Amino acid sequence: MNLxxxxxxxxxxxxxRRVKELAxxxxxxxxxxxxxxxxxxxxVPILTGALVFCSxxxxxxxxxxxIGMLTVSSYPGTSxxxxxxxxxxxxxxxxxxxxxxxxxxxxxxxxxxxxxxPVLKEAGAASVKTCVLLRKxxxxxxxxxxxxxxxxxxxxxxxxxxxxxxNYYRNVPDIVTLKSHVITKSx
Length: 187
Ligand code: IMP
Ligand code: MG
What we know:
It is built from 5 helices and 10 strands. It is an alpha/beta fold. It has a single domain (13-153), classed as Rossmann fold (3-Layer(aba) Sandwich), CATH 3.40.50. The strands form 2 sheets. Strands 2, 3, 4, 5, 6, 7 and 8 form a 7-stranded mixed β-sheet that branches. Strands 1-10-9 form a 3-stranded antiparallel β-sheet. The longest helix has 18 residues, at 12-29. Inosinic acid is lined by residues 46, 49, 74-75, 82, 85, 104-112, 157-159, 163-164.
């Protein structure tokens, strides 16, 4: 696996520091007086990519919270460009009156966030905020709602810390690029 890595873009130590900063900001924004005393949040990671980010982030947020889940597919198989976002499954119960924070690994075309925010509002969420670990330097990404952004990165295909290529490399602890021969046969 490590032989396929071209370079480390963001190290696990940089990620850990930034995740703590994001968590501190989220706690501040979801505590009184910013929010009502009984305001409750539901964190909704978009699976599979946001799995690792979510597990690290929620353990830095000491608020009463529930976890929901949404599975969305946009980069099926060996694609390295979005093929359109499809909500594959929803497991978030009743969101009536709850403040939802959607988590995604990366904001690229913005299709995923644009697809999931209305789904959560239709489920009764009182508010929907979005948090992405990475945002690519693309006009479509910058035009998409992102209330919390971990890192702005160049428009490159990256894997690690939950992000995959053909469902591999999610367990790489850093955000990395892959050698070109690994991804060249992709659409
Ligand atoms: P968007 O819908 O185009 O904004 O893309 C968001 C989704 O595409 C993310 O949740 C990822 O699953 C996937 N994605 C986008 N860029 C990359 C990348 O560079 N590497 C791996 N997956 C990516
Ligand atoms: Mg994803």
